[in-house]
Amino acid sequence: MAEVKVTMEVGTDGVAVITISNPPVNALAIQIFAGLKEKWNEAAKRNDVKAIVLTGHGGRFSGGFDINVFQKVHTTGDISLLPGVSVDLVVNTMEDGKKPAVAAVEGLCLGGGLELALGCHARIAAPRTQLGLPELSLGVLPGSGGTQRLPRLIGLSKAIEMMMTSKPIMSEEGKKLGLIDAIVPSTELLKVARQWALDIAERRKPWMRSLHRTDKIGSLSEAREVLKSARQQVKQTARNMPQHLACLDVIEEGIVHGGYNGVLKEAQVFEDLVLSDTSRGLVHVFFAQRATSKVPNVSDIGLKPRPMKKVAIIGGGLMGSGIATALVLSNIFVILKEINPEYLQRGIKAVEANIRGLVARKKLQQDKANKALSIVKGVLDYSEFKDVDMVIEAVIENVPLKQQIFSDIEKVCPPHCILATNTSTIDLNLIGEKTRSQDRVIGAHFFRLQDLAGYGVAVATGKEFASAFPDRTFKSPMLDLLIKSGRNGKNNGKGYYIYKKGEKPKPDPSVLPIIEESRRLTNIMPGGKPISVTDQEIVEMILFPVVNEACRVLEDGVVVRASDLDVASVLGMSFPSYRGGIVFWADTVGADHIYKSLKKWSELYGNFFKPSRFLEERAANGVPLSAPPSTPSSSSRSRM
Is the pLDDT at 637 greater than 50, yes or no? Predict the structure, then answer.
């Protein structure tokens, strides 16, 4: 492994170049901060040093603070593991130092990396350098002066936008905003930065301390109006995440009482937020997503993924056309097959509508839209399947139909082609039963919702679930009643919501009598009377059965690790990432409480709520659900 270090070289021009080295992104580990202070102090003392240039090794300035430290703090609860560098290093040593410093940035300049650059007296960047403060996405706020210096350099509104969204900007925009002083080719970066630093030292260029600037903040009344508007927006978009409002409070502290006081409050609030449940959850998801790429006997033995250049999709309905859209946007050529010209034209038009919608919402540029639409082709047979890398079947939940399709495509696709099914319920072994290629049959499910997919799909999946897991399926007449009343979700404009073209879907009050009838027919309420439940109990009655099923998945060894289910819940069912995913959240609630609740409900309302053996054992032994099993379980491909 490459050594984590900070180096310093002093040139004959009197400029000390201090370089951060911690591949691949020069993360700011504890030893990096210590090394920066040591080298800065050395440069300050040396008589042959007139000025300083700070840069990063290997074409990247810094990707930001080493997030592994957050994980250690969450594990130990020891806040002293965090380096207190905001005042000691960035203010006292760098910004208020006796020798001018220029940041020479390229590639990545994010989080703590950008905060170091803000502490310098000028910033020179290579083209297309990413600049941003994404800390709020991890449940914290910029902790080394970013909340104070960024607004003073680019203005309050834009700085708030960058921090609230955690989205970076490019150096070209940074130059226009005043964040970057000059953009030069990468080959000229150090040369220009050195000269700029000397020009500051010799008073040919201004010696600017960002924390002391106020010219871009505006009047106090203007600033408070901007902050008021930002708070209102945050209350709508990030209601359950404390870091957004906390960040705005810290920004206001600096505007009202001065930048240095803002830095002091920022450091205090940063420590509070690091220990919050929100930060614990978001940091967990951050690492969990990266862990999904580590698969035993695959990633650890050097196997590399084969590139996907051409993919065939069977079925151009809502799901098939949606998958096709996602693929062409990723620059993958798509063959879309349907059974007749009418269905095929409908599928192609659905893809076109999806792409046009993205352009209309300014989420896709027109030239990229044109490119995406040029790499989708509609067909009515399998003749174009001879050179595809993957086939995704996206037809109705019908076992004989899927088996026939897989039998057919096995004969026409190349031997390396992956045969994927979009099924949400059917055993993959059953789908591939009549092929000789079970080793390349996989599930590639793309999640849908009842109103969007139509109730026919929901009825079909419900039957499969009831057949495969009769004791774990909640039987409700609700769907049949909805269909009987002439509803089919978005397909015909009526479902749980009312759909009108060009308008946001609205809840349909006329569905309430249907719900009442479903409740009457289900007849599981004690004495036939509605029960009184709190909001918290509603959440638990919906999600504890999901936790229960997750326990069965863990017991059967379907996933490599519990955090894989956390990622699946966040990305697949929009489980709040700040809760850390379904298993992480369950551990914060406690296995014992979940077990006792499910056991009570199973006695009152039936076996749907019956706790699994895995959950019962973990609750009895006080072991977290996320803890690895004591003995390896056999793998199963049959559970969805």
Answer: no
- Which is catalytic among the residues 106, 135, 252, 410? 135
CA quadruple 512, 476, 528, 608: dihedral positive or negative? Answer: negative
Please say whether the beta carbons of 232 and 164 come within 8 A.
Answer: no
The answer to whether 139 touches 88, Cβ cutoff 8 Å, is no
Distance from C-alpha of 219 to C-alpha of 227, rounded to nearest angstrom: 12
Residue type, 347: G
Complete DSSP assignment for 470-510: GGG----SHHHHHHHTT--BTTTTBSSEE--TTS--EE-GG
7, 264, 466, 472, 482 from 616: Cα distances, Å: 55, 48, 24, 16, 37
The strand pairing partners of 418, in sequence order, are 390
Taking the C-alpha atoms of residue 478 and residue 522, their distance in angstroms, rounded to an integer, is 9
Tokens for 224? 């408070």
Single-letter amino acid, residue 7: T
DSSP code, position 103: E
Task: Tell me which residue of 610, 608, 578, 570 sits closest to 594, measured CA to CA.
Answer: 610
Q: For residues 559 and 561, give the distance between their C-alpha atoms in angstroms, rounded to a whole number.
A: 6
Return the H-helix or E-strand segment holding 243: helix 242-257
Give the CA angle between residues 556, 587, 294 to the nearest 5°.
55
Catalytic residue among 3, 9, 95, 115: 115
pLDDT of residue 1: 60
Q: List beta partners, residue 182.
A: 124
CA dist., res. 158 & res. 132, Å (int):
11
Angle at which helix 277-291 crosses helix 259-274, to 10 degrees, equals 70
Q: What is the Cα–Cα distance from 123 to 375, expressed in whole angstroms?
A: 42
Q: Is the peptide bond before 24 cis (omega within 30 degrees of 0)?
A: yes
Q: How far is CA 32 from the centre of its chain?
A: 27
pLDDT at 639: 39
Range in 41-45, 183-187, 477-481 the model is least confident about: 477-481
Is the C-alpha dihedral spanning 409, 412, 415, 416 positive or negative? negative
Residue 446's pLDDT band, with cuts at 50, 70 and 90, is low
Q: How confident is the model at residue 449 (pLDDT cuts 50, 70, 90)?
A: low
Active site residue 95: no
Token pair recorded at residue 591: 């296995």
pLDDT tens track for 46-71: 999 999 999 999 999 999 999 999 99
pLDDT digits (tens, 9 = 90+) for 213-258: 999 999 999 999 999 999 999 999 998 899 999 999 999 999 999 9
Q: What amino acid occupies position 49?
A: V
Give yes or no: 115 in active site: yes
